[in-house]
Amino acid sequence: MNWRQPARLTGPSNTAVALWAVAVAFFGVGDLVTTLVGYSITGVTELSPVVKLLLERHALLVLTGLKAAVFVGFFAIWKYVSWPYSIGIPLGLALLGVAVTAWNTGIILTALLA
Question: Which helix (H) or strand (E) holds 56?
């Protein structure tokens, strides 16, 4: 036997909504914009070999598609996992997004100021 918490009928918490907003802002938009801007600066390269290969083709289309696929996948997992574990999904994406956006911004500033 197993017991599973009933599905969320009341909707997501304010914390979850705020974390998803931060995840979209930084992991989705922030990383995408800083990657595209950085990639357009001479001397700045992508560390990930897979993303580097994809950027050589159709950068905006490919990166947007990858980001959308990641969000759909993690959102589906978030809907399935019960509280309090589910909050880790938008929290992880938000933290990763802030870190990657900050890293990319630092690389861009270093390249521009060098």
Answer: none
Residues in the chain: 114
**pLDDT tens sequence across 65-103:** 888 998 999 989 988 888 788 888 999 999 999 999 999
The CA angle 45-96-37, to the nearest 5 degrees, is 35
**35 Cβ contact list (under 8 Å, min separation 6):** 46, 51, 55, 63, 104
Q: What is the pTM of this model?
A: 0.78
Residue 66 in contact with residue 32, Cβ under 8 Å?
no
Residue 80: how many CA atoms within 13 Å on its side-chain side?
6
